[in-house]
Structure prediction request, 280 residues.
Amino acid sequence: MGKQLSAQPSKADREGWLDAITRLMDDVVAWSEAQGWPVERGRKRVSEDAIEPYEAPTATIRLAGGQLHVEPVGLSVIGADGRVDFEAWPTLNRVKLLRRQGRWTVYTDSNVPLRQEWNKDAYVQLARDLMA
Amino acid sequence: MERSDAYRRLARVRDEFEAARLALAYTLAQMQAGVPINGPQNMALPEMRLSARHLEVTYLLRLYAEYEGILMDYWLGGMRRRTRPQMKVLMDRIASNQTMSAGNLFDAHRVRDFRNDIVHHNVRDPRLTFRDCASRLGTYLRWLPVRW
Prediction:
């Protein structure tokens, strides 16, 4: 994992980030609903040092045994161009989706990347694993 | 308090732990590579290594303290009790009140045992990981009402 914070984001970076997380949430919602998992969409205010505060989409997915919370953390993170967390309650298991060059990669809390394409199958498996 | 607040309190400790672990690992790597990063405290490499080795146990105590605070909040505010029982009794009474699964209670007690070994018997080798502990304590909290 890189050790540098990305350079000061531009307005275009911010727009690109908001577009990326909106598309990610849309995918997560669609993939969840295809599994029959109820989804509640939400919004959160994200404050980062380098850019103006903004509203970002969130999602809460109800699975057998708990809930999965999908929340953007920010665009300015170490070693990536944005991070979205997937956190399960009650297990408190979590993975981070890091965005690099427009692609999402899943990282465990130990910062180990899961070398698997981010798609519907990966999401469904991940959601179940986080509940276990 | 809401149950979601309880989860967030535990999750915040986890986030601090992860940030501290990253910072320590990075600093240690720099020091081992001979990069002069010492500040006025002149920390020595062995001290940094010791800190890194005990970091998980240190944050486990923080996690448990949050959990303890949440249970006391529920005991006093949710169950309207006025006593301050020991943790074992507190966990058992809440579990009984909420008809909790025996397995979930057992798992949380293992964390309490481990925490007591750390505090009273100077155990430093984590037989349960921070993540195991957070998961067990979070699962116990699942039995609390949505709000109290």
